[in-house]
What does this fold into?
Amino acid sequence: MQILTLKFFFPPPYERKVWHYTRCDIEGIRKSLDSIGWNRAFRNLNIHQQVELFNNYLMNIFENYIPNEIITINDKDPPWINDKIRNKVILKNELYSKYMHNGKTLVDLEYVQNACLTLNNLISESKKSYYNRLSDKLSNPKTNPKTYWTILKSLFCDKKIPVIPHLVHNNIYITDFKAKARLFNSYFSKQCNLLDNDSTLPDRKSVV
It folds into this structure.
């Protein structure tokens, strides 16, 4: 009997933009959209150029009126780890290295202990906030079943790592996660192309 050993691994750390929709300026978004002369902006543009221009306008407005930030995601980290905690871990490690390099002086030891205390407080607060959010979602009757069971699995530590198998493209072995994502995006985007013709959308007022 042959035993097949399967190794699961985490994807490398990656950056992700997070949008805080609950803090968005809805009135500012509406005023910005109403101030754009869409007929003039779309003039002499084909359908592909119109879609690209519309997306650019929309994303620029959202960037200005919806708070957002770039965060680093590392699937090896617990879900309550954030950039502030990561920075404190780096600082604590640097202070400990200095403490060892300087011969374990009492002054450096105090710096290390203070850094450890601050780090422990940050971790405790972050964990408490994280589990409070999960509890609120579980107790909310509007939470959909998929989110409900995802939360339960995370609490029971039943996390499975979704890993896309290696791909072969043009006789090249693709293992990088970003390269795989680009290949999939390129493939699926070609499955549906817009027909560039002389058709125009009806006037919004006439439809209403």
User: Anything to note?
Assistant: Residues 95 and 112 are 6 Å apart (CA to CA).
